[in-house]
Specification:
The chain has 175 residues and is α/β, with parallel strands linked by helices. The chain has a single domain, classed as Rossmann fold (3-Layer(aba) Sandwich). Helix content is 49%, strand content 15%. It has a five-stranded parallel sheet with strand order 3-2-1-4-5, sandwiched between helices. The longest helix is centred in the last third of the chain and has 17 residues. The termini are far apart.
C-alpha cells in the first residue's frame, strides 16, 4: 500500500534489484569492444555476447589482452542492424535462462538501442540495464528521433510477426 502511495510498483522495485546475468555488446564501433573488455574485467562472472562486432581476430585480441577467457565470449554475426542485434540473440539469451543483461553501446546510439531492446528483449521477459560508451566526436550525438521511431516500429513488427521490416520487404520482393 505504501509503495502505491509513493507511485512505485512492486515490479519497478524488482526490476531495479535484478542483477544482470550477461553483457550484450552491440557491434558497430571498435571502442565498444574495448570498453566491454574492461567492463568484463569488473564483472568476472558474466558471459559476454557481442552482436555483429569487429572481425573475430580483433575481438579475440581485445578480450585476450584484457585477460578475459575466450569461454566467456559469444560472438554472433547474424545481425545486420540495430533491430537484428536484438532479434537474432533474444531467443539464445532466453534459452539460457538470462533475464537481465547489461547493454553496452555508444552514448549517441543508446536511446535507439534501449527502445528497441526493451521491445524485443522485453517480449521474452528480459530486462536491460544500459551502459553507455563515451563517443567522440560529440557531434554524432544523439541519433535522430526518426531512426528511433522507425526501429521501434520494426521491433514491434518483429514481436507481432517474427519478421523485421527489412526481412518482410525482401520476402515480398522475392515473391
Amino acid at each position: 500500500m505504501l509503495l502505491l502511495v509513493l507511485g512505485v510498483t512492486y515490479k519497478q522495485i524488482q526490476s531495479r534489484l535484478q542483477q544482470p546475468q550477461a553483457v550484450l555488446v552491440l557491434g558497430g564501433a571498435p571502442e565498444r569492444e574495448v570498453f566491454a573488455a574492461e567492463f568484463a574485467r569488473q564483472h568476472p562472472n558474466l558471459p559476454i555476447w557481442i552482436s555483429s562486432g569487429s572481425p573475430i581476430e580483433y575481438t579475440e585480441w581485445v578480450f585476450s589482452n584484457a585477460g578475459i577467457p575466450s569461454e566467456r565470449i559469444h560472438v554472433d554475426y547474424r545481425a545486420e542492424d540495430t533491430v537484428t542485434n536484438f532479434t537474432t540473440l533474444v531467443d539464445d539469451l532466453n534459452a539460457r535462462g538470462i533475464h537481465c543483461v547489461y547493454l553496452i553501446t555508444s552514448d549517441y546510439h543508446m536511446r535507439r538501442a534501449q527502445v528497441v531492446g526493451e521491445i524485443v528483449l522485453g517480449s521474452r521477459g528480459i530486462e536491460l540495464k544500459p551502459v553507455s560508451v563515451p563517443s567522440t566526436p560529440p557531434e554524432q550525438w544523439p541519433e535522430s528521433m526518426g531512426k528511433v521511431v522507425r526501429d521501434a516500429a520494426r521491433a514491434v513488427l518483429w514481436v507481432a510477426t517474427g519478421r523485421t521490416g527489412s526481412s518482410l520487404g525482401r520476402t515480398l520482393v522475392d515473391r
